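Reviewers of the previous submission asked for a worked example of the structure-prediction workflow described in the proposal, so we include one complete record here. The input consisted solely of the amino acid sequence. No template or homolog information was supplied to the procedure at any stage.
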Amino acid sequence: MKVIDLTHTIREDMPVYPGTEPPKLEAANTYDKDGFKETRITMFSHTGTHMDPPAHLYKGRTALDEFPPDQFIGKAVVIDCRTLKNGEAITLKQLEPYGDEISAADFLLFELGWDKLWGTEEYFGDYPCLDDDVMDLIMGGDYKGIGFDVIGLDPIADLELTRHNRLFCRE
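From that input alone, the workflow returned the following structure tokens.
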């Protein structure tokens, strides 16, 4: 199995969700003083590349450390959505070229090309989001997770977190 690292390096000047404090990296121990180097890292759990568990929105629901390790390993299909313009919806049309790969995947990764905006104000713009039909497909599937190269599942302006709530709806 080919393993692909999708993470961003944690840096003090990295983009964070609007209103979130950026990470702090402080020298805690040094070679000269302590004989070894150690860095104190202070950051919020939604910094950089991260996963949202149901406990993110619902008290008493599953937190990341409660999932078995195999929850985070599997086959992914990368869905090319780079032709979508700002604010356009990710629809079933974008999934059609992948046929049976969609239902066979453990993870659906939506490539919007937004990674090239990382570190700019445009990164927090009107990125494409899933429409209801794609959400229905995800909710009806047996996926371990979905992923995006944008700051969130919901548009920045959606303070109700409509898609998050639907994805983590109570059983």
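The chain has two domains: 10-50, 52-167. We consider this example representative of the routine output the project will generate in years two and three.
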